[in-house]
Write a structure and sequence with these properties.
Length: 491
Amino acid sequence: MDEITPILSDNHTAAESGEAVPELKVYKRRFWVLFAFSLLSAQQSNIWLTFGVIPDETCKYYGIDEWQIDLLAAWGPIIFIPFVFFSSWYLQKYGLRSTVMMGTWLTLFGTGLRCLIPRGYEHDLVFLIHLGQILNAAVGPIVMATPPKLSVDWFPANQRTTATAIGCTSNSFGVAFGFLLVPALVSRFEAMGYSGVQYMLFTEFWMTVLMALMIFAYFPAHPPTPPSLTSQTARLGFKESLQAASANSAFWILCICGGVSQGIFSGWTSVLSVILNTDSGYNDRVNVNSKHLFFTSTAWLGCISTVVGIIAGLVFGFLADMLPRKIKRLLIALLFLCVVFFAWFVLSVYKVSFASWLGSAFISCVLGSSFLGATNPLFYEAAVEVAYPVPEGTAGGVLTLLNNIGCLLFEVIGMAGVFNDSHPERARAMNFVLVGAIAGCGLLALFYKEAYRRSAIDCGTAEPADDSDGHVVKTNNSINYGTTHQTKSIA
């Protein structure tokens, strides 16, 4: 049965405002929409990760050098940076369904191209796997910037942060899944006498086909009746939204803090296997049969760190819904804990006496990653709230743009050969960059001026919006689901 929610809070009723109240509903189908989108997000990141977790097998199978492995991963941020503006504009103009369908087709074509290389032509047609990764990379802005838009379109105000957290962390789930799935598939097919890399790509393609069929089967453009007042109010146009966002100091503080901390962390994880290399007593084994092998396995470290980060993101997303208007306090506390545990990780890597016990680096990395993962949905929601009426897709796009710029810097440095097994000390130096960056973001977050403009409208306590620097932002109250052809006035 559908649930009906009030448009205004008790302290500002429709009778007091003298306005008619349109009926607001939330539908159970919203969970299917979120689930289907999360599948696309998870599969996109799983495909992006594919070759990075089997570098030796990939180099051998295609006859390529290590720098091409770095390039296959670097296509993610390289394509993201120019494509994020197009995807934000497309989402605002054509809406959620059309954007998700475009992302699904791109992912499907990308995984299909990677399977078109016949045996004996692996090296000659290696450009097809690059093209496949490029198409999949173009989906990155869609799945990373869209969760706040989906949550506002389908979920009531008291569930939005949780919905955003699920949408955001599903991308990380694909990474965690890929850490184990890809090497396990390659090993299994090779044990059966097949080409491990080739049949792994076939498996990922059919997984993508199944996901696409589920999305094509049912993914509505928007609910018949909006779930909240702000889900039906028009946003600024694309050009106007960029102008408003650029003048909003609180928004930029959040984007810098979220983008820099998450971007540098993403780049840092890409060199984690160099920081914890075999010469340091670590391994990349998935099949482990002892406590020692488990705590020294970078494959399990990457997987568990990501999974715990997902859980933390969901927990703190739900907590933010239960404790409204407390996002700033939660962010500062989480960033402080990140600094503590990543500093502990640094001491473990350098084997400082009290941090040199078995599992010290493993546990500290997992805890630091989990608390940083918890900040991700909070940065999204805080940025959307303070930037309103800037569209959710645009606000999320700017935040993830800075994230990918930070990640790209690491990838470029890696392709240049700065980080490799011959120079692990260079990668270890990035530990200090990570700790310093997160500490700096925590200090900068202290200067962020909280504003909950979107939530205030849903509660009926809104004041005229400004951009945090004293400039009035104009908008209107027409229903708009992302297309100029589906609008009507609120009664």
